[in-house]
Amino acid sequence: MYIYRVIVTTFDIMKDFLSGSKFYPLEIVIDDREPDAMLEYLLFYKNIIVRKERLLVGDYLIDSELIVERKTPSDFSASIKDGRFFKQAGKLAISKVPACLILEGRKREYKNLGFSKNAVQAILMSVSLIFKIPILRAKTQKDTVSIMLQSFKQLTKDKLADYKFHPRLKPKFKSQRTDKYLKQKIHILEGFPGIGADRAEYLLNHFGSLQHIFNAPESDLLSVIGIGKSTVQKMKVILNKVNFNDA
C-alpha cells in the first residue's frame, strides 16, 4: 500500500474549500488500478492524505463519506460489453456510503463506442432512475478531481462544522532523544489503518504514551493534527475487538 502526503498548492476551483481553517484534511483512497495521472492531479491539493489500494466498490473513497466510480469512454464501453458495468452499478447502489458516477470525456467521444444513442441513454437512465446513482460529467482528469471534491463539499455541507483543517507540518517530537522505545511505539501505531509514521508521532507528541492514546476518548483523538474520524473509528474497533478461543 502506498501513502502520499500532500503539502502543495490547490487548484483555484477548490481553493476556498480547502483553505478554510474549519476544514479537516481529507483522506482519499484511490483504487490501485487507476492511472497515475489521477494521483498526480490530487497531489496538487494540500491537506489531502491519499492512499492507493484495491477498492471493492468504486474507484475513489473520499473521507469514508463518498464513493466515486470514474468511467472514461473506453472503460464505459468495455464494462458494458463484458458485463461489469451493471455489476458495478449494483454494488454502488447497495453501498452504505453515498456514491456517484463520473463520466469523463467529451460527449462526442461517447458517440463512437459502437452503441446507438438510444442504447446509451437507456443505460444511463437505468443508472440514475433504477439504481438511483447520480451521474456527473467531466471533460478531463483534472475536472474529475475538482468535481469529486465539489461533490464531497456538497454532500457534507451540513457537517462542515465538524471538519478541521491544518497545514501538514512535520511534528517536533520533544522526546526523540530521550525515549529509547520511540521506534517501537511508532511501529505499534503504524499497525492501525490510516496511521503512518507522521501520524504516530503526532499522537505520541500529544498524549505522551500508548496507554493514553488507547484510552483517549474520540473527541481528544480528533483534536490531533492528521487524525480523522474514520481513522479513530477503525482504531477503536481494533482495540475493542474480543477474540474467544474455542473451549
Automatic annotation (TrEMBL):
One of its GO terms (molecular function) is single-stranded DNA endodeoxyribonuclease activity. One of its GO terms (biological process) is nucleotide-excision repair involved in interstrand cross-link repair. It holds the Pfam family HHH_5. It comes from the Bacteria. This is ERCC4-type nuclease. Residues 27-107 form the ERCC4 domain. The keyword DNA-binding applies. Keywords: DNA damage, DNA repair, DNA-binding, Endonuclease, Hydrolase, Nuclease. It comes from Belliella baltica (strain DSM 15883 / CIP 108006 / LMG 21964 / BA134). Signal peptide: none annotated.
